[in-house]
Amino acid sequence: MRIGGSIAMTGLFCALMVVLAGNPRALLAAQAGGPADDGKLRIIVFGAHPDDCELKAGGTAALWAAQGHHVKFVSTTNGDIGHAAIAGGPLARRRIAEVKEAAKVLGIETEVLDIHDGELMPTLENRKTFVRLIREWKADIVMGHRPNDYHPDHRYTGILMQDAAFMVTVAFFCPDVPQLVKNPVFLYLSDNFQKPNPFEPAVVVGIDSVYDKKADAIWTLESQIESTWATGNFETVVPVPADPVAREQRRLQVRERIAARDRRVADKYREKLIESYGPEKGARIVHAEAFELCEYGRQPSPEELKALFLIGTAK
Q1: pTM of the model
Q2: Among 50, 58, 87, 127, which has the minimal tally of Cβ within 10 Å of its Cβ?
Q3: Quick one: average pLDDT of 203-210?
Q4: Comparing C-alpha atoms, which of 185, 198, 206 is closest to residue 290?
């Protein structure tokens, strides 16, 4: 029985290798011990705090996930001072739990690095962390903040992403994780800062079809809804009401605040939407997210970039 079992297992292994041989990416993935190539895109997004990815790319992530593509959000700090009344471990644990719930809503994966809020630095150790995360995810697309964003954690997230853009292909840098055979496309999340250069979108994605999902994901970030950006008040906590009617009013208030941001993106880059989606559809899009192509990493053609972001495909 043991001999027969061994023969059967050997035959199964050989058959598997024949299948993998017809798909080089799948073979490389199997050899590396990483995720197998199922023909779907793999996207990793770096945000400085446990809400940045959701705010800037939550809709686009939901579009990818709905088509079976694999998306991972990484918060590069634990957000442990991002509240008007609490801080430290209790806040970090709370925010980790919140983004896990948001990830369930969006249909994606999430990870929060154990680095204090406000203390991210562009060190060699952190560069290696970025390289390993990108390689382990076998990313086709990598996104993060621009390095001239307002917050030091945002800026250094952008620098670390840029520093990883070439190093992910260097075999003997972090040799414990196999290099990527194909360099990913690297892009920046949108912002409104002008110096030394303004944000210039390479792609603007209409997210109307998944806007409810994005809004529901944002609603799970309760620590932020009761403090900071959701209320516009950085000094006073405004707890989410327990009363169902008042709670629903608050939910709609938060939804409108976030929707207004995404409407501004759509209006600001309307010409780009029309260029990508056509005059009729581009003019109708209400909510959008925008991304700038990084000069480092793979440089896709405009048509390939549209395909990567599912523009012109069924959603």
Answers
A1: 0.87
A2: 87
A3: 98
A4: 206
